[in-house]
Amino acid sequence: xxxxxxxxxxxxxxxxxxxxxxxxxxxxxxxxxxxxxxxxxxxxxxxxxxxxxxxxxxxxxxxxxxxxxxxxxxxxxxxxxxxxxxxxxxxxxxxxxxxxxxxxxxxxxxxxxxxxxxxxxxxxxxxxxxxxxxxxxxxxxxxxxxxxxxxxxxxxxxxxxxxxxxxxxxxxxxxxxxxxxxxxxxxxxxxxxxxxxxxxxxxxxxxxxxxxxxxxxxxxxxxxxxxxxxxxxxxxxxxxxxxxxxxxxxxxxxxxxxxxxxxxxxxxxxxxxxxxxxxxxxxxxxxxxxxxxxxxxxxxxxxxxxxxxxxxxxxxxxxxxxxxxxxxxxxxxxxxxxxxxxxxxxxxxxxxxxxxxxxxxxxxxxxxxxxxxxxxxxxxxxxxxxxxxxxxxxxxxxxxxxxxxxxxxxxxxxxxxx
Length: 418
Known about the structure:
- Helices cover 39% and strands 20% of the residues.
- α6 crosses α7.
- β1 (30-38), α2 (44-53) and β2 form a beta-alpha-beta unit.
- The two termini are 30 Å apart.
- Strands 1, 2, 3, 4, 5 and 6 form a six-stranded mixed β-sheet that branches. A six-stranded antiparallel β-barrel has the order 7-8-11-10-9-12.
- The protein is of the alpha+beta class.
- The protein is built from twelve helices and twelve strands.
């Protein structure tokens, strides 16, 4: 009981010290998000540009590697088998492990700083326990492996433009007809004003109304109603006892060590990713309210961001290992920074989790209650929800109603129940 209360006090203090809800400290899974770009496809370059601007899903730690986009001109990366072969061939799993330990490829030197930071460990206590090889020190490594390194994901996103040229061409034709009509009216009015004087010849203005509408028409034909489908493939880093033991014994070193450097290089192929599942976005129509015609790339960004967020939300619903835990920011009323972007609806339900530390120092999570979102008080945190004036876009957090449980505290974690 005393250990549980200490955990609560630590969480509560970190919450009080945080300047904003998004700065609350809690353990998150980590993710490397990358894109498959089809070079021969229309708008491939535009889609690639906006993907680089898109942050990793904000309920995960950013574990990106240097390569974010893989360009292909054939069908080698169009299914799970092809993508798995690509990830294995490029030894992505070993690269993710190397990043966890800030491994220097030239010397083999590693450190535990990222593990300490993301695990919210007291740095001096962590180092002391590991140095003493105590029971608690072993538990800390197990804890880090299970709750941190073992929850590292790779999300490969195959993004494709959906050709809606028929509909956009119709819009473009209408704009051209309207532009031509207005131009004719302007020319007729100008001719009348000139009095048909042969010495006062009328010269149409440049740029003309027609040219302006023709420009909008071309843009409309290209971008209006821009639509994409994203097929996302999800993988998880395998970090079991055997893998962890081999790494710490054969490859981990806190100084320049050529032998351990070479061990890691030889063993790169032994690190693995396991396939979790996949999800394809619906390609549903996106509202471009609030986006100006002269901002076509913003249309591309919104379409891609919404489709990717849809996939991430559905992957969380369908695969328990990918579910996120989000802290309660307050309890009177109950609120948390989660909403429509994470797929929340009026029918969603969440469990409230209490962190519990056992005698060995290992942290587990115990359900202490359940909550549901209040109708009309779900935060719409989707990309550009405010620009389209979506309901709930200004809430800043979702308000919940308790269904069961006792006393809740800020900093307790919630997780969606399927």
